[in-house]
Every structure is written in structure tokens, then in C-alpha cells.
């Protein structure tokens, strides 16, 4: 039988449990209300009591490297030091195991010793920020701090000093390939050269971290949300850095010695069409763009077009041989000045009697009259077609911004003079890469490879993207191309320049060009020329095209101005690529019959 005494404790226990359960249910209901039902409102309330912050995460712009992977353009880490003026003040620091208070003026002096700023200047930065806004939470201590400065400042452990990290573009070899690589602006935007052309490969994408912090500036744990940055890709060029450096020194010396406006040396690999060097002077140092005149910050090599002159006589020779109307030994009778049946007048650079020139001899003596007679063996339409095949008027596959296509008027628009002028490199315009491309086709058995500056782009995820280039094009038969290459060998050994451009142990093929320069008001300038010298090395096993140009040299005004630069450039190319010497001599062909 249950008594009153035993029922009372049980009732009290049940009552206590009921109270506990009621309280617990209240907590659960409130928790659900806070975290589920009214979560957004409570988050908004908390944000009003905390301080939101965003830190940018900078992606790194991709490197530009040469054919061997050596950096031509890269990015280094720089830091922007930021102060929290509202929280600036003394800091606690442990000295010999004892906590001491370091006053703000001493902290400012320690910062200044690292950044190179007077302590008073740093303190003024804080005072100015607070004067503008008593609750200011941001002011720059200094932007563009080096890694060493950043580490030293971080070691001060000042809670009111934080850092933003970002990359900055730098060019380890300065002006080496400066006109090709180009440069970026202070805001990181690409402004010229490969930096601009290949920005799709090189560009990075920034990310950010958002977080909440308390009134003391401390980040509230668990509030960080990160959107990661994406780095740019690595762009590999076909350029050989060491060869580029040497040739830039060489052309700088030659331009100054010959008192020319500018000059360039271009090296193209015969089998591939890859540009191994594109040296220019004047040039630009991408690390210090303002030190160069605005006109020197681009690339004349890829942007300047001119009448190629005598260098393109080789294309006339290839055309008539490929068409089957002439051979290297075919002859024409030519004086040094003649008037043709249609009234056109053509003269040679040097006086000579009437000679029975072979096609080879016409190239050796660079006779405009003889080349005109060989050229008229083909119709204007056929010769126009051959010029197009060799790239005249078609630009290149390089894709340089504003690169001229070159001017080649339709054959139907050629007047009487132009009909003959086009046989010896006048009446149309080309860029230096186009001229080199035409010779690449001759040296490569008539197979014209698209010129290229870019090897590949390796994206941040490891994907390798190669350039989309046009298919190679057979512009003339191998027999015709080989015949002209041998004829150009004879130019190199039988023309007046022979002793000046010879390289011991190697067979070379070469041709000069002394082109008239168009005047600003029409016609040609008087007494000045755009001179060039182009060659195939070695001629018996063609591997490289070397082209040198000088714009209006004055100490020597003809293509003879290019001899020294050409000979030195060829020699360096052969050394650089360890090309084996020739094991035979150039077979001599008759100049006249």
C-alpha cells in the first residue's frame, strides 16, 4: 500500500523533470528560430555589429620564356602595407621574457627604418586618415614593398598593420627581345608585343577572400569565404635568348657606325619557319619603357614595309625556272640602260657594256635590265601569281597587331613601268618577315612554312596549346628552288661582296637589296636607301635564313653597309647551333655566255 510519504518525492521528481523538459524545449525552439526561421535577420544583425572585409587574391600573370625555357618576362611578388588608423597605438612585445609596451612613435620609427620613410611621415599618414574620418580603418603605409620588406615589417607584429600581396611584371634580361616581348602598363594591362598578342594565354584571373572582423580588427573565425585566383599560362617563344642578345648588340653597333635611322637582324629556321632571333635597334627595355622614345617602343621589324628591291630578283628567277621558260644558263643580251618596246625605261646601278647574261649572271651583277628581259618571258598575270605564292601582299601567320599585308596591285593595274619594275623588287611592298619567308621557301625545296614566334602555351592546369598555323605550301618545284639556291651561292662567291661575307668552311647563298625610299609627298627620296642583305646558311644543307636591314645608312649608302653585320650574324648563327662545316665547294656557274 502506497503512503502519502512515498507519493510526495515521486511527484516532486516528475515535476522537476517536467520543468527541465519545458526549459529544454524552450531552448530548442529558440535555437530553431535563430538558426532556421529567422537566420537571415540574425545574420544581418551580426553584420551590423561586426566589420566586413574583402582581401583580393591576385592571380599571377604567366611567364614568357624563350625556346629553351629561359624567362624573358615573369612576375614577382610585391606587397602593399596597410594601416588600421582607428587601432593604431602602442603594442605589447616580449623583451627578455618580460612583456613591455612599445609606444606608437617607436613603432613608426621601426617601420620607417624598413620602408625608408621618416617616422613623422608614417605618423602623419595615420593622423591625416583620422582627420578625414575619425573611425578610419584604412590607410596605405607603402605600396610595392619587396618580400624582404614585408617579412621585416611582419616581424614587428603590429596588429594594426596588414598586407595585400600582388604580382608585378618584370623582365629579367631587360631590353633583350624587348620589341618582341612588349610590356604591360602600371595597371597590368598589356600594351605591346607578345604581352598584348598572347594575352589570352598569359592573363590571370583574380580571386578574393571575404570575412568578418570585430571592432579590434581581428578576423572572426569561420567567416572566411574564398574565391581562388587562377594563374596565367606559360608562353614559350621560338626565340633563342642568347642569340637574340648577341644580335641586338651587333645591330646596335652597326646602326650607330653606319649612322642609320634603325636596323634589324632576323633569323628564321628553314625547316620549320620558326623565328629564332628578331633583333632591332633602337629597342625598348620593358622594365623602363619611359626611357625610350614612343616611336621606339614598338617593332619596326614587324610593322615597317618597304620595296624589297634586288633581294626579290631571286623570286623572278624561281618563277621563270619553275614555269619552264628559262634555266640558270639561259641568256639575254642586256646593256646598262634600255628603253623597252612599251616605253618603260630601266637602268642598272653600275655602268657596263652590252653583255650576254645568263640568268645566274643577272643575279650576280644584279642587273635590272637583264631581269626585266627574263621577267617578260612570263605574262603579268603569271608573275603576279608567283609573287603571291611567295607571300607578297599576303602578310604572315605571325599575327602581329597592325602588321602590314604588303601592297601588291592586281596585274591588270600595272602600268608599263610597273610591269618591269616588279621583276627587280619594285612596284610592291613587303615586311622583313615576308622577305625572309620567301627565302625560307627557296631554301626548303620550294615548301613555304608559315612563320611563327610562339612555340606553345601551357595553361595553369597543365594543358598545352600549340598555335593554329596555316598548312605549308609548295610554291615552286624542288628543282626550281634548288636551282635558285645554287645561283644565289654563285652570287655569294662571284659578286663584289664575296670577300666581305665569306665564312671559312661554309657554303653560303646571299643576295643584296638597295631599295629606294618613298618620300612623304610622293616619288622617292634622293640619295638615301633602305639596304638589306639576306642569305641561306649553309647553302649545301640549308638550315637558317639570316636577313639584315639598315634604314637610310649614311656613311655607306648602298647595301655594302650591311656586309659586316651580315657576316658576323651568319657566323654567330652557325656557332650558336653548332652547324657542321660544308664538305664541298660551291660549283661555279657561268655569268655570261
UniProtKB/TrEMBL annotation:
Keywords noted in UniProt: Hydrolase, Membrane
Source organism, top-level taxon: Bacteria
Cellular compartment(s): Membrane
Domain Penicillin-binding protein dimerisation: 58-187
Pfam families referenced in this protein's UniProt entry, alphabetically: PBP_dimer, Transpeptidase
Regions annotated as coiled coil: none
Entry annotated with the keyword Ubl conjugation: no
Transcription regulation is among the record's keywords: no
PROSITE patterns: SUBTILASE_ASP
Entry-linked InterPro entries: Beta-lactam/transpept (IPR050515), Beta-lactam/transpept-like (IPR012338), PBP_dimer (IPR005311), PBP_dimer_sf (IPR036138), PCN-bd_Tpept (IPR001460), Peptidase_S8_Asp-AS (IPR023827)
Chief location category: membrane
Ranges for domain Penicillin-binding protein transpeptidase: 263-570
Family, similarity comment: Belongs to the peptidase S8 family.
Name of this chain's protein: Penicillin-binding protein 2
